[in-house]
Model the fold of this input.
Amino acid sequence: MPHTHPETELHNPQSTKPPLDPHLKALENEAIHIFREVAAEFERPVMLYSIGKDSSVLLHLARKAFYPGRVPFPLLHVNTGWKFAEMIAFRDEIVKRYDLDLIEHVNPRGAAESVTPFSHGSALYTDIMKTEALRQALDAGQYDAAFGGARRDEEASRAKERIYSFRTPDHRWDPRNQRPELWNVYNGMVRKGESVRAFPLSNWTEVDIWRYIQAEDIPIVPLYFAKKRPVVERDGMMILAEDQRLELLPGETKRDEVIRFRTLGCFPLTGAIRSDATSLDDIISELETATVSERQGRAIDRDQSGSMEKKKREGYF
Amino acid sequence: MTAPATANAVQEDAAGHVLAFPAADTARATRDSRPLRLITCGSVDDGKSTLIGRLLWDTKAVKEDQAATLRRDSNGKQNDLGLPDFALLLDGLQAEREQGITIDVAYRYFSTDKRSFIVADTPGHEQYTRNMATGASTADLAVLLVDARVGLLEQTRRHATIATLMGIKQFVLAVNKIDLTDYDRARFEQISHEFRELALSLGVRQVTAIPLSALKGENVVYDGRASMPWYDGPTLVEVLELATTRSAQTVGFRLPVQRVSRPGESFRGYQGTVAGGSVKPGDSVVILPSGMVANVTKIVTFDLVRNAAVAGDAITLVLDRQVDVSRGDMIVAIDSQPLTGLAFDAHIVALQPDGIQPGKRYWLKSGSRRQRVQVQPASQLDLQTGKWEHAEQLSMNAIGKIHLVFDEQAIFDPYEQNRTTGAFILIDPDTNNTVAGGMITAKRSALGGIHTEDARVILSLPADLADQLMATELFAGRREDAEVRRVSAGKASEIIDTIDG
Done:
């Protein structure tokens, strides 16, 4: 009989941990359901992998959804060239450890036109190196579905995003004309060139992400944990001063601070927070008493109210 | 300021700017249930945005930078308690902020020490029935708002009807702006009495009415005893903390197959989310629509091979023999099978400007199964009178009864019994858009022409027994099919005697 797979091989050797509480279990079940539905309904899915905590949870859920099989789609990392060095090292280690297919894309305009966050300003830089780069990569792969780790609690315009978020052939999002989404019955019908962004973590909050990372022992980039690191103060943010391309402006000085990051993106645009949180327990209790939201440290969200909505309409994740 | 909630919640400077939030509670305990999903219904005038804003604010789901953005956007405009305009917090899209209206369903998240909550925040205007239906489809509980000065409105009936149709059985009537009636107890009791009668006529028995002031934060998260010593019931959050989450664990086992996992020659598993009941190794199951029988050998998940799975679990099922199973099939309990057939009746909500056209062929998706279907509208619900009127077609926002005719076997449970396997969406093949959400009510007899629904039974019952029967879910689900007259005992026997004639 074909089913006589030795049972021991089906046991995951890491699985001595206690079961998830019903809250996290429900969120996990919902995410796995979405992963399977998209993988079955679309011809060419891809998963956006940004190396951050949400991506780490997303990847873990994908591995769970398709176990004992491999993750049946590639990961796409849109690299700007300005990510934290520790993020890239972490990414390469994870891809090797879990036997994943990784596609990395950098917008060639970055090198050709010397686009940097310093020379072009955060808004234009993000537009070229993230939004435009993402569109290039999605077009090149002809993907009809792209998983993302966005959560509805992150930002006001995200609160109205569907779990299957329809995109036109030029990757635009029309927030006023979204497909209704009832129950957990998702409409995956698209024409050639059209696509769907799928968000398995839609109903997760930031605390859920951290509690799940803890419960499932999911590896994350060490930058999330507090440590003494060199920083420089700029535009009201503390920026990590490790990369040699960071030139100090007149009046700026490098100093050591015990800091960590709540979100990870491009190092020149991501503000650190002063923190002593060196463990997941510390992070969770810090978060539960936090008085500012996580995106507060992201320069690109603060340009104007509704700036996320604008970027999303143009194809940003 | 009389409200202790406000006084404790935030520190403000002389100009009413928020300076600091109180220290949040110490680390929260692990959650012993899944998030409660609720929908809030009511118009802007009822203070819905203020209520949700208050819930988020008093449970500390709003952070300082969000509050700062809020203050910037409201140009210093604040309510009379020095709090920012909560409505701006909720209306996330630019068009909404510009027009001052909510145009789409938004989802909000907050939690207390005991539980976490997902709020589907939907606009109250009549033209947005479709958004309400969307929000209600996944909700465990509905909060209906009324203005204490105004009382029940036509829209209260409309919202309660839609929520009931979508399968919600727990209601909270939030009698808001009670402060503007000088905390008038008689007024509150009158409104809650009227609503209980309305609810009973819809077959809803779980109703909690709460007098509250969203603006002042009374009986929302913090109690309003200082202003309303006469009210000793729960606050809104206390009701939400104790509400039950819907579960389909007591019905027959259902596994809609999402995909077949074949990582190697030696393993074949069927992946899906259990949509009803439970399953364990050794159980006999039937694969529908083929009708083949097999036994479960293993329930595989990433963490371990499990000895049971229940409704809601995302699993991989391994069977003891090679059977033909593909995406869209349903694996079900052998002793408790769903309905299969080519013709079904359903309730639907029409979601798009083109409405639902008679005889048109749509895609129907239910669970993981997608098939072609021909749709014939039969009647439409008049939301003002609660009566079903004959209808040839259904326009946007209409709630209708339709007949479904399939080319191939369809598999459903009545929605009343299973909110997953009884629900479906209709997709227009011309636009690929979702044009309706539907709920299966019954399978139609294959004998065209001789419909059992044409046969009627006249019962004569004592009024109290009739009231109990009419309050059952079964009756309420088909309330529109029944004619009810209240007459004296003498008159009743007179009528019955005439029939026997």
Observations:
- Chain B has four domains: 4-242, 254-333, 339-453, 456-500.
